[in-house]
Amino acid sequence: MTGHTVISVRNLMKKFGSFVANDNLNFEVYQGEIFGFLGANGAGKTTAVRILTGLSEPTSGEVIVAGFNAKKQPEQVKRNIGYMCQKFSLYEDLTMKENITLYGGIYGLKKRLIRERTDLLLDRLNFREYADRLISALPLGLRQKLAFSVALLHDPKIVFLDEPTGGVDPITRRQFWELIYEAAGRGITVFVTTHYMDEAEYCDRISIMSEGKIVAIDTPANLKQQYHARSVEEVFVKIARPGNN
Amino acid sequence: MRTVFYLIRKEFIQIFRDKVIGKAIFGVPVVQLLLLVPAVTFEIKNIDVCIIDRDLTTESRGLVNRLEGSTFFRVIRSTSSEEEANNLMHSGKCDLVLQIPSDFGKETGTWHPSRLMVSVNAINASTAQLSWAYLNGVIREYNTDIITGNIGGQPFNPVPQIQVTNRYWYNELLNYKYFMLPGILAILVTAIGFLLAGLNLVKEKETGTIEQINVTPVKRYQFIAAKMIPFLIIGLIDLAIGLLLGKLFFNIPFEGSAGLLFLASTIFLVGILGFALLISTISSTQQQFMFVAFFCMVIFILMSGIFTPFDSMPVWAQKIDMINPVVYLIRINRMVMLKGSAFADVSREMYALAALSVVFTALAVNRYRKTA
Amino acid sequence: MKRFFGFVKKEFLHIFRDPRTLVILFGIPAAQILLFGFVVSMDVKDAGVAILDLSRDETTQKISDKICSSGFFKKTQDLLTYDDIERVLRKNRTKAVFVFENDFGNRLISEGKANLIIIADGSEPNTTTLITNYATAIIADFNRELAGTAATQNLLVQSEVRMFYNPSLEGHFMFIPGIITLIMVLICALMTSITITREKEVGTMEVLLVSPLKPVQIILGKVAPYFLLSFIDIVVILILSFLVFDLPVKGSLLLLLAECMLYILMSLSLGILISIVSKTMQQAIFASFIGLMLPTILLSGFIFPIENMPVGYDWFSALLPPRYFIVIIKNIMIKGTGFLYVWKETLILIIFTLVFLGVGIKKFKIRLQ
């Protein structure tokens, strides 16, 4: 579990007016791990992810992602990461192939490489028959898998997934996590946020956010032991319930 | 640059994937151009006149005949009832009522001729004034007859008169179409480009696809350029089609350099699209964009000098109009196509257009943030 | 019925909750009326003219002075030769050149006539026509003076003119009703054309589809809040026109307001129809804005009188609802006529409204199937 640090967050604060969305966050993520960023809806997870991916500026604190300062060098950060946001954001009026080609081109992949990757992607995920269909005509699970694949298209060092399995059936969820494992197996660090506590079990380490603060960070096993819980869900309930700390 | 190419490619795919819009982009200008251009004219034809002839003598009939013989007037009714005449004017059936008093014939050619009473529908003030001027022309001819002795008693010395001849250069027949076609074309291209480009960008904000772009290494100017170039190309094609139609169907003259026109149109489109994108960057929904765009566009269009002369606007309005790209394009179009003006003649307008384009585009790029 | 009112209330709140939209929806029409009332005009002021005086005597000097001090014209320069004309017209600052033939004053006295040629830049026909008219009027005046010195003055038939409905010859009377017509139809059609397509794009159409409301109720429910908004809009506009531009309401105010309500309803219905038929907001906006704007400006009689259009255009214009409202509004406000003069136009507007609503509802039902 120790590899070098790919994400380093020190004293991260994010305020919207007087509302504190991220309150003094401190944590590190190591290379190759699957890091689960848990918390209830509204806890501040997406805000933090947007800062890590250079989409939003921190109010204060130091955030280093893939070796670059997210506040001062957001564009460099973006070159080295992939991102799958909560709201599906591939182009609905484009086909699978067209979306892939677009992002491949944006990330600077050569035409031949784009073609190869496209073929690989379509075959590996059994998307061949859907290749020329508009995204809007595809079922949700397929879309999510495609979005994930596009995020990995350019071999980023880190990939950020914000609630990637929202609204998807359990089987598709399982398939999705297989993809995540596969990516991690290739050495890609996966930073995934979710409010599904059971998905926490799949992660190497997790952190739990509550009301803007990180209230726990460790491996699932350690946390369960620490809080005498049988599941991460129990851990969460014990931690997040006010008055239990 | 490859990035821009891929982005532009995506834009074109998206534009033409909507079959309806794809056809409308080229179809609507063609249809509206062919349909609307013939309609525009300020020429006054057939001013409908109602005569109240209380005299009914040779002299009064002589006057009425002159009126009927004039190309401008059409006598639709002769009555003795003032009420009926007024009703006709109320219901819009006549625009001018000429009342000839009962002593007209007797007093013509004497030292105290009678007065004609004229009522004109003055809702359209300029048409009214024109009608009045034309009527005076007819009366003047009648007066000339009196003076030269055709009517009334003694012959007199001719009165010295200044003869005025009107000659029109560059558009000898004062063909309004020559003027209106480029104008209508410019408006259509403006509206289409403005809406499509602007809505496009706002939609990306609304759906969230812009987030995915923001997280890539795409540079701001690349993104904005890709939002502009497809519509620039479409706009230029529309302009070319429109001018071709103008030549084919309406025989629009083309005295000047096509290259100059092309250059002006390109700079113009960049300016318009830049402005649209600027508005997009400050709108968060398509609806918001729509209303701000509506506001700006209607102002640009009604103040463009196409429908009402630029010089007729109050000075403060002319100053505001200095940031209206449409004004400059219309002027350049008109001068190059009808007068054959060269670059030197339109240089002021070109520089103004260029300045506006640079400013609007720069603002748009600037306001677009990849990091919130 | 209760469900219907609940639905209407929800639609109301939806709109009135967003302050930005309200500012826009109220501010825009008012601002535009104010702006265009001052801006849209056909008066000629300070039009640039150049003088080519080949005679240079007292008479030509007098005439030139009269022309340049009229307020309509402003002298740009004195030209020396005929060749200068082309150069100066091309520059675009000068719109017309007055050419006095040589020996002007003498010819006038000895031959009884002298020639003045007005060479005007015909590339902007609307300005040019006005310019030549004004010039002709000024010369006519001068001619009258000349005639006045002759013994024949009292022989000439004079006429007296009454400018009906608009004695002060305000340009506003023609344009403001037209502007009101244009802006209202565009805004109303735009507003409603977006509503249903928005539901389609955002995905809340399904909610509508499974609701127990009848299609008629859904559509009327969507139109209702915009109706109120537009009505307030038009009342504000009328008040502004009256206060700022002295636009009168010579006829019945009640009738005017009723006709306005009808017009708004018609425009909103048109928007709804477009909304139902369009698949995306882009299409809806295209159809309502681009489809309506130029035809309304050009064919409805707003600026260009319908009578002057070529044969057959009367028919095209007949398909445009705004054409009828312009007649109605001018009649009631400026002519002061009563319902008897506008019943035909009113009836046509009612028919348009019913057609739009009817077709819209039918198509909506089909969508629901």
When the domains of chain A are counted, the total is 1
Radius of gyration of chain A: 18 Å
**Multimerization status:** heterotrimer
Distance between the termini of chain A: 28 Å
Name of the CATH architecture of chain A: 3-Layer(aba) Sandwich
User: What is the CATH fold-level name of chain A?
Assistant: Rossmann fold
Regions of chain B with pLDDT < 50 over 5+ consecutive residues?
none
Strand order of the largest sheet of chain A: 6-7-8-3-9-10
**Biggest beta sheet summary of chain B:** 4 strands, mixed
H and E order of chain A = EEEHEEHEHHHEHEEEHH
Q: What characteristic shape of chain A results from the CA principal axes?
A: globular
Quick description:
The complex is a heterotrimer of chains A (245), B (372) and C (369). Chain B has 372 residues and is an alpha/beta fold. Chain B has helices at 2-17, 19-36, 58-69, 82-90, 104-107, 125-147, 176-207, 209-214, 220-250, 258-281, 286-302, 315-320, 325-339, 343-367, and strands at residues 47-53, 73-79, 96-100, 115-121, 161-169.
What descriptive keywords fit this protein?
heterotrimer; A: 245 residues; alpha/beta; Rossmann fold; six-stranded mixed sheet; four-stranded antiparallel sheet; 10 strands; 35% helix; C: 369 residues; abc type-2 transporter like fold; four-stranded mixed sheet; 14 helices
How is this structure best described in words?
The complex is a heterotrimer of chains A (245), B (372) and C (369). With 245 residues, chain A is of the alpha/beta class. Chain A has one domain (33-46, 81-240): 3-Layer(aba) Sandwich (Rossmann fold), CATH 3.40.50. Chain A is built from eight helices and ten strands. Chain A has helices at residues 45-52, 74-80, 96-106, 111-124, 140-152, 170-185, 220-226, 232-240; strands at residues 5-16, 19-30, 34-39, 60-65, 68-69, 81-84, 158-162, 189-194, 205-210, 213-218. In chain A, helix 3 (96-106) crosses helix 4 and helix 5 (140-152) packs parallel to helix 6 (170-185). The radius of gyration of chain A is 18 Å and the shape is globular. Chain B has 372 residues and is an alpha/beta fold. Chain B has two domains: 2-40 and 174-367, no CATH class; 47-147, abc type-2 transporter like fold. The two termini of chain B are 25 Å apart. Chain B has helices at 2-17, 19-36, 58-69, 82-90, 104-107, 125-147, 176-207, 209-214, 220-250, 258-281, 286-302, 315-320, 325-339, 343-367; strands at residues 47-53, 73-79, 96-100, 115-121, 161-169. In chain B, helix 7 (176-207) runs antiparallel to helix 9, helix 7 runs parallel beside helix 10 and helix 9 crosses helix 10 (258-281). Chain C is α/β, with parallel strands linked by helices. Chain C contains 14 helices and five strands. Chain C has helices at residues 2-16, 19-39, 58-68, 83-90, 104-111, 125-149, 172-202, 205-210, 215-245, 253-277, 281-299, 313-318, 321-335, 339-368, and strands at residues 47-53, 73-79, 96-100, 113-121, 158-164. In chain C, helix 3 (58-68) links the parallel strand 1 and strand 2 (73-79). In chain C, helix 2 runs antiparallel to helix 7, helix 7 (172-202) runs antiparallel to helix 11 (281-299) and helix 7 (172-202) packs antiparallel against helix 13. Chain C is elongated and about 95 Å long. The model of chain C has no long low-confidence stretch (mean pLDDT 84). Chains B and C meet through helix 2, strand 4, helix 6, strand 5 and helix 7 of B and helix 2, helix 4, strand 4, helix 6 and strand 5 of C. Strand 5 (161-169) of chain B pairs parallel with strand 4 (113-121) of chain C, so a sheet runs across the interface.
